[in-house]
Fold this protein.
Amino acid sequence: MAVSIKSDREIGLMREAGKILAEVHARLGEQIRAGISTLEIDRIGEELIRGYGCIPNFLNYNGYPATVCVSVNDEVVHGIPHRKHILREGDIVSLDTGLIYKGYHSDAARTHAVGTISAEAQELIDVTRQSFFEGIKMARAGNHLNDISSAIDRYLTSRGYGVVRALVGHGIGTRLHEDPQIPNFTQRRKGIKLRPGMTLAIEPMVNMGSWEVEWLEDDWTVVTADGSLSAHYENTVLITEGEPEILTLV
Ligand code: MF3
Ligand code: CO
């Protein structure tokens, strides 16, 4: 499939979808504390999204059973919320969620500390977030997709982190997952040329140890193979004539 270029009207709707999701994430982040269950986080996320008149786009996507992917410690992504999974002081928790506004999707992820965490865990969270910003420095019309991928990869790999390879970012618009796929690791090919009007979900997933991952029995939850901590940071981004516009940050 060709990579879609959004019209001005579509960009307006993508901006609104992004702005609402940024608000949802800000309010979800305020809920993070020791003692809350991952299912409560999901419930609050769904309530917030529906409260804005939007539709949760993860819910029932390929059978995924929740609105928010809640991934704790060595869980990389797609953790399934559960009432018996209670956050504890010292955990790190990645929240990944998205919504549909008037037919247009937004998608974003944040990793939060639960109370006081180790310096290494905080460093992982900070480096993961920064790797996204290293990537989008390259997200400019005329550059190629691999300029983004390799910038993220170089930043993380030079610091000794494991860049997850089994999952990638993606185009986004009238569907949650559109072309192109956006790896967070260097490709042999330059990839497509970036053009104004492309909307991309860029989402580095970063392990403290090896890049290798496994799937749990539930067939969704991705965990690090070596049990090390993992963090995730994602925004929906618009390619413009100039600076990229981060749609899911307020
Ligand atoms: N943000 C993730 C992605 O882009 C999560 C979606 S998977 C779902 O792939 F099944 F949970 F919806
Ligand atoms: Co995504």
